[in-house]
Amino acid sequence: YLSYAKVDNEGKSIRPAYLVNTVTKLFPDVVIAQPQLRPMEEQIESPADTLAYLVQLLRRYAADSIGGDRQLFFMLYDTYARNEAYAPILEQMKRAAFSYLSNAGRNRLPRTLARILYGQVLKNSVSRLEKFASCAYAHFLQYGLSLEERDKYSFESVDMGNAFHAVLESFSDRLAEEGYTWFDFPKDAGERIVSECLESYAVSYGETILYSSKRNEYMITRMRRILNRTVQTLQFQLRKGAFTPENFELSFQMTSDLDAVNIALSEEERLQLIGRIDRVDTCKKEDKLYVKIIDYKSGNRKFDLAALYYGLQLQLVVYMNAAMEVQKKKNPDTRVIPAAMLYYHVSDPMTETDKGRPDIAEIEAAILDELKMTGMVSDDEEVIRLLDKDFETKSTVIPVARKKDGSFTQASSILSDEDFETVSDFVNHKIKELGTSILNGYIGLNPYAQKDMTACTYCAYKSVCGFDKKLGSGLVRHLDDMNQDDAMERIRQSLGDKEVMDKAENKNGGGQ
After folding, report:
1. pLDDT digits (tens, 9 = 90+) for 410-445
2. Of 346, 4, 358, 436, which is closest to residue 163 (Cα–Cα)?
C-alpha cells in the first residue's frame, strides 16, 4: 500500500508527491482507492479513530437531525457504552450534547439573589425591557453581570446615532437663541447652525476620534449632509400640519412623579423607567389638546404591533403614555388626546423615479416620500387633517393613504381612540409582567425568532452563551407573524384574560 495526503496541515489542497505519478506510469492498471468516500461502516478501524465520528452522530441526534444514520449511531453508542475505557468519555460527550436541554430547567436565580443584583426599585430603560423580551439570558449578561464589549477606538453606527441625537438637540436650542422656530428658519441658516453644532460635537466626542483618520473625517461630511436633509425634512413635515414642537429631549427623570414610568410590581418592589422623548408636538383645538411624539432613529426601524405584543417594541407607546400624562397635568381642564406616535429615520436616502431624466422637484418629492414617518396615527379625520392639511389620497408626512371609496388602505397605520387606549393599557401590563419576571430571577436562554430575524442576529454575547441553533432549537421561541388586525385582536384578548385573572385574585384575597 502506498498512501499520500490530499491536504496539508491547514486543510489546503496539495499535489501528490512525484512518486505517485511515477508508480501509476509503471503500473497502468493500478487503482487509486479513496477509502474516505466509502460508507462509514467500512471505515471503522478502531475505537479511538471512530470516537470523533460518534461525537458527530451524537450532536446530530441531540439536534434531531440524525436521519438515516440512526441505526449506526445506536450500534456505536452501545459499543462504546460497554467499553470501560470509553464509557466515561461517552458520558461526558452526552452531557455536552444535551446541555441545553439539561440546563433548561435551571433558568432562575434565587429571588433573594435577584433582589440583591437588581434592587427593590428596578431602574430600567425601555430598551432594557425589550432586551429581556428578546432573550432573558442576554439581559442577565448585560444588566446582571454587566458584561461589556471591549472598547474600540473607532466610530461605528451606534456612535453616529448618538451624534444625530446630540446635534438635533443642540440645533433646537440654537434656533431659539437666534430667534428662529422650526417653521421659519431659512435654509442657509439651518445649514450654518447644523455645521456649527456638528463641529462642536466632533471636537468633544470620543477624544476627537472623528479627526483621527481620513475615513472618520469623511464621516463628518456625511453626517452634515444627512443632518441638513433631516432638518429641512422635519421643517417640511411640520409646515404640512398644525402641530407645534413643545418639548425636545423630554427626560423621564425630570418628571419622576409620572404613573406611566413608575409602576408597582409588588407591595415592596417597583419599576422606574428612565429615558428621553426626542420630541413632543401638541395642537390645541377648542377644549381638546392633541399630542404627537416623535422618536429619531438612525436605523430604518418600523413600528410593528406584533412586535409590541411580544414586548419587543414598547418604546413609542411608553413615550406616548408619559407625554400624555405630562400634558394632562399641565392642562387639567382640557381633554388630552393621542394623535400620533412616530419614528423618523435620520437619513439622506437614494431614490428612484419612473422617468429616465427627472427634474429636481421630482427627485425632492421622491426623497420626501421616502422620509415619511412611520408609526401609528389616529384614524380621526380631524386629527389626520391637523397632521397633514393637504392629505387627499396619500400623505407625504404620515403613514396614511385612502382608497377610491374613501376608506383607509390596508397599509395605513391607524388606530382608533379606543385602540390607542387598549394598546396603552396593554403596554403597562406588559411592562409589569417583564419587570416582575426580572425580579423573580428569570435568566433562561430563550432567544426569539420571527420571520428572518432572531435575537441572536446582532447579539454581542454570542461568544459567552455559545448558543447553537440546532442543539438549542427547542429553546427558541418562534413568534407568530401577524398583521395589524390579528395583533390587535391578540392584545385585546390578552387584556381580557388579565382582567379575569385580576378579578379572581381580588376575590380570593378578599376571602382570606
Report:
1. 889 999 999 999 999 999 999 999 999 999 999 988
2. 346
